[in-house]
Amino acid sequence: xxxxxxxxxxxxxxxxEGLAISKDVTGTEDNIAILRDEDGGVWALNDTCTHxxxxxxxxxxxxxxxxxxxxxxxxxxxxxxVEGLPATKxxxxxxxxVRDGDVYLYPNEQP
Length: 111
Ligand code: FES
Known about the structure:
By secondary structure, the chain is mainly β.
């Protein structure tokens, strides 16, 4: 068990929005979208939409999902499950923790 990777300050991620973290930082196969919902919860998904190549960090976060900015597919914040066409493939969710105002990512660990 590690302490995770500090990827952002919580204040860097506005409620209802996302922040893309390079895979060069996270060591993951894709960039990671850090997503903050309207209740202040913080979530992490692979950043590249499974439909084409849009960045989910540029999408809208509300009601438990992120909506792709390009064609409006939705993905569950908790587990990456696709919830709306045109995407048909789930994405990957990663565990995150907020400690002392910072966001820590646990790459490839289940949330
Ligand atoms: S690129 Fe995301 S729905 Fe098309």
